[in-house]
Specification:
This protein has 156 residues and is an all-alpha fold. Helices cover 69% and strands 0% of the residues. The chain contains nine helices and no strands.
Length: 156
């Protein structure tokens, strides 16, 4: 009688099968392993774009070509992958800026024009207009109503 494989060993087997399925011409679109790998690959593209944007926004206007180059892909391929997810580069830029704006505004040591710069806006007015559209209030009012949690403030 054979002893059942350890769960970690089984997980590694599944990962190897998934990697192998992509290079195996016998695996096709109808295969569940292929479909799962394709789903994970496209889902992660948006996360990769957002991580890249977070690293590169400060003082620069985000450009699709730059992000594609950093991710090691062509602009067209990146657009296609995002399109497959029904998301646009512009949407990811706005979503990333909004998340980062909230984080920066909780840090009272960064003034509002500094937040605008860190988010890649050319001027503070553009940031103020975008923030007002996202949150329905000004960045200053939002900061007053949403202070940093005590643990976050103490850690600074």
């Amino acid at each position: 009688m054979q002893t059942p494989a350890h769960p970690m060993l089984r997980r590694c087997e599944v990962q190897v099968q998934m990697q192998t399925s992509l290079s195996n011409p016998g695996i096709h679109k109808g295969d569940p392993l292929y479909e799962l790998e394709q789903h994970n690959a496209t889902r992660n593209v948006a996360d990769q774009v957002k991580r890249t944007l977070k690293r590169s926004l400060a003082g620069r206007r985000p450009v699709l070509q730059d992000v594609a180059q950093e991710l090691g892909t062509s602009t067209r391929t990146l657009q296609r992958k995002l399109g497959d997810m029904n998301v646009t580069f512009k949407h990811l830029v706005e979503e990333t800026r909004r998340e980062m704006a909230q984080d920066y505004l909780r840090q009272s040591t960064i003034d509002l024009s500094g937040v605008a710069f860190l988010l890649g806006y050319e001027d503070s007015n553009s940031f103020f207009r975008a923030f007002q559209e996202w949150e329905g209030t000004t960045p200053g009012e939002w900061r007053t109503r949403n202070p940093a949690p005590l643990a976050h403030a103490v850690g600074r």
